[in-house]
Amino acid sequence: MTSRAGFVALIGEPNAGKSTLLNRMVGAKVSIVTHKVQTTRARIRGVAVEGETQIVFVDTPGLFRPRRRLDRAMVAAAWGGAGDADVTLLLIEAHRGLTKGVQAIIADLAERTGGRPVALVINKIDRVKAEDLLALSQAANDAFAFVRTFMVSAERGHGCDDLRRWLAGQMPEGPWLYPEDQIADLPMRMIAAEITREKLTLRLHQELPYELTVETELWEECKDGSARIEQVIYVAREGHRGIVLGRKGETIKAVGQAARAELEDFMGRRAHLFLHVKVRPDWLEDAERYREMGLDFREGDA
To answer: I need a surface site. Which of 42, 64, 126, 273 has the fewest CB within 10 A?
Structure first.
C-alpha cells in the first residue's frame, strides 16, 4: 500500500473540545485539557496513525476576539495553522450551536483556508436531542460548504474512528513526516511545562492569573533512569506569587505532586520535579517567551 502523510488543523472557539479530540485521535495526552478557556497557547502537533497513513494534528489556540498582545499572537497562530493544513476541522459544541463566535469563524473560512477542504465536527453530541443535531448541521452547512459533517463525542470517543479513517483518505501520498513511535513534535521540556500549567489551571480555577507561564529550566537524566526536572512558574505580579504558592505552600505542593504523577505516567519512569515561583512583570512583552510557546511575537502588535 502507498504511504500517506499530511496535516489537519483543529480550529474553533475556546473550550470547543479541540484538545480533547486531539488526544482522542492520537491515543495519548499531548495537549492540555482543562475547563479554562484559551489553555492551548502553542500549535501543538500530535501524530496519529491510521493504516499506512500518518495524520499530523495541529491543535490551535481557540479563536476569539483578541485584546492583549498574547491574545493577538494566539489568534494569528490559530489561523496560521488552518492556512498551512491539508484539511481543516471546524469544531463546534452541539449544545451551544452557531454562536456569534462560530459565525465569525465561518465568515472567514474561505479566505483563510485557501480553498482547501474544511469539514465540520459537531462535538458533545450526547448533550442534545437528535432533531436538534440535524437542525444545527443543516444551519451550519447552509452557512458554509463543508465537505463533510461529523457528529462526535471527543470525550467518550463516539464517532472519532470514522473521522480518523476519513481524514486518512484525505492525506496526500508521500513518506511519513515523523518517526513511527513519535506522537508529538514538542520536546519533552515543553510537554512537562504544559502538564504543570494544566495542574495550576485545575487547582486555581478562577484565581489563576492568565499572566502566568511555566518554563522547564533544567532536565537531567539520572543514573538510575529517572529524570530531575526543575521548572519556574513566572507570574506578572507579586500578589500572583502568593496565589500560586498558597497557604503554607500547600497549593504549589499539590500542583507539583499532580504534575509529577502525570509526568511519570507519560514517560513510564520516575521523575523528580522541583517547582519555583518568580515574578517577572514584563514577560508578556518578552519575545523569547513567545518563541518558546511557538507563537510569533510580532503577530501580537496592535
So the answer is: 126
**pLDDT tens digits for range 102-127:** 898 888 787 766 778 889 999 999 99
Phi then psi for 35, rounded to 5 degrees?
-80, -10
Pairing assessment for the beta strands 227-235 and 271-279 based on DSSP bridges? parallel
Total number of domains in the chain: 2
Helix (H, G, I), strand (E, B) or coil at 134: helix
pLDDT value for 119: 94
Burial classification of residue 26, based on how many CB atoms lie within 10 Å of its CB (0-12 exposed, 13-18 middle, 19 or more buried) = buried
Cα–Cα dist 166/45, whole Å: 19
Examine the domain organization and report whether 78 and 196 are in the same domain: no
With respect to residue 181, please indicate whether it lies within any of the assigned structural domains. Answer: no
pLDDT (0 to 100) of residue 36: 42
The pTM assigned to this predicted structure is: 0.58
**180 occurs within a structural domain:** no
Q: With CA atoms as reference, report the closest residue to 128 among 164, 102, 92.
A: 92
Confidence of residue 82 (pLDDT cuts 50, 70, 90): very low
